[in-house]
Structure formats: C-alpha cells, structure tokens
User: Fold this.
Amino acid sequence: MIMEYYDTIIKTLHELNWISLIVRAILSMIIGGLLGHERGKKNRPAGFRTYMLVCFGATIVMMTNQFVYQTYGVSDPVRLGAQVISGIGFLGAGSIILTGHNQVKGITTAAGLWAAACSGLAIGIGFYSGALVAGVGIYLIMTIMQRFDIHFQDHSPITTVYLEFDKKRPFSDFLYYTREHNLSISDIHITKNKLLKDKAISATLILKSEEPRTHSEILELIKQAEGVQFVELT
Assistant:
C-alpha cells in the first residue's frame, strides 16, 4: 500500500501538472537562492536574486520543452535545454571582470551561474534526485572547497603581486634584491597610473619562490625591499 502511494506521488511529480509545476518552481528557487546567497555574502557581481532567476528560468525552459513535446508530439525534449547551456555564457561573461591590477575576477561566479542553470534544467525535466545532489554538490564546492583552494594558493610557489616603486631609484636594484632572496620573476607588466604621475612606477609581477614560503611571507619580503612604496597580492 505504501509503495503504491509512493509510486503514485513519483508518477505525479514526473508528469507535467499543477502539482509538479509548483514543486519544480519552488525547488528551483530554493537551490538557486541557496547558491546565490553564498555569492552574495562575498559581494560578487551575481548574487541571491541572479542565481535564483537563472535556476528558475532554466526550470521554466525545460518545463516548456516537456509541455511542447507531450502536447504536440514534436520537438526534441531537451532541445531548449541545450540552448540554455550555451546561452548562459553571455551572463557568465558579464560577471567576469579585469581589475586595474590585471587580475581576473568572477570566474567562479560565472561557473556557478552555469551550474545553477544546469540544476534548473534537471528540476524542469523532473530529475529531482539529480537536481538535489547537484545543488548540494555545487554549494559544497563554493563554500567548503574554497578553504582548500585558498590553502593551495597560499602555499603555491608562484604568486602575483602589484607594486609601486620609487621612480628615483633604479628598478634593477629591486631585481637584484629578488634574486638575492631566491625569488625569480617570470613576468613583468608595467602599468600606467595617472595618480602616481612621475613619482613612481607601478607594475604587476609574477614571482616564483625557490624556497618554501607562503604568499604572506613573500609579500613581507617584498615590502622590505628599498624603493618599494606599496605592494599587495593580486
């Protein structure tokens, strides 16, 4: 009796009806809102409402596709969903920005938007278990896994720094200083800063430490170099 009741509920939720429409809409808003809340706390370009709209919109697309397929017996049942996966790229690209220090930000947000859309597609077609697993997995990646990402980055031998150097001193002195402290420079990008005028030069450097050092230790080492007026990690 219980199994028959359970099968009836599952069948109802997989079919396109008012009950499944409401369940899918609510579930998409919950998962989208959960993912967007994590990004919103960090003041990212796409936050709570953006993620919710992306997930909800993808759900609507898949339900529309299912409706057309079941009602008219034409069209591929996943055709519109494929367009969402490729079309979400324009929204993700809009969240990726290049800072004044040539630092790229927003890639995780863009990937999260794409993943939220995929979760919405799963909800829209009635793949509830897959959508729930995906939603939890995406949330864990964006929260817990960030701690591991920060740890790995901080202990990486390669780091990128932005610095402002006194223009009255030879920049070669700084290069000699880095070599003496077992730091090799693999790339230098000189940037123009109108605020500095002729007082200092600004540059973005990619450094590699020959010794085991954290990024904080490398930053402190760079600060001690003569002529360095300002330095920060990027």
